Amino acid sequence: MNEANIIQFPTTQKDSTPSLEATLAEAKKGKLKKRFYAFFTDLFFIGIIQKALVFTYAAFINNSFYRSSIDIKSLLVNNLWQMRLSTLVFTFFSYFLVSLYMGHGKTLGKTFFNLRVVSHEGEPQDLSFMEAFMRTMGYTTCYVAYSVLFCLPLFRKDQKGLPDLFSQTEVLTEEEFSLLYAETASELGKETEQLDLFSA
Known about the structure:
Shape: elongated
Strand content: 5-15%
Mean pLDDT: 80
Low-confidence stretches: 6-14
Largest sheet: 2 strands, antiparallel
Radius of gyration: 24 Å
Strand order of the largest sheet: 1-2
Helix content: 55-70%
Distance between the termini: 61 Å
C-alpha cells in the first residue's frame, strides 16, 4: 500500500521547470533573421537621410546660384554624384556610430525587432565609444566589400559577424538580455527606459 502511494507521487515542480539553457535556446530562435531584418530597416532610414542631404544640397545650389552662369551651375550639378557618394558614406558611418553609442546598443532597426548590442566590458547595456566605433567599422567594411561579408554569421556556429568580432560585442534579443542580465535589467530598468534614444 505504501509502495503504491510512493509510485503514484506526482513529479515535482523542479523537474517540470525548464532549464536556463532551454529558455535561452527558445529566446534565441529567429535571432539571425531578425538581425538581417533590422539591418535592412536601418539601411532604409540611412537612404532617407542621405536623400534628404542631397536634396538640400541641390536646393542650396538652385537658390544660391540662380544668377550664376549656366557653366557654373552645370559644374556644380555634375558634381552631384560625388556628393551622393560622400553623403552616403558619411550618413552610413554616422548613423551606426551615433545610434549604437547614444542609443544604448540600439539602432532604429534593432529597436523595431527587439534586439540590442551588449558590451562584455562594464555595463552590458552601455557601449563605450570605442566599441561603438569598432562595430561601425565592421559594418562599413562589410558594406564596402559589396555586402558579401554580412553573410559571415550564416557560416559560424555562434552566429557572430564581422561587426561582432571587430568590437567584441554581441547582439541579443530582449528576452536573452532579460535572462542573462536579470539583476542589471531590474536595477537599471527605469533609467534605461528614460535614457534610451529610440525608446517608444
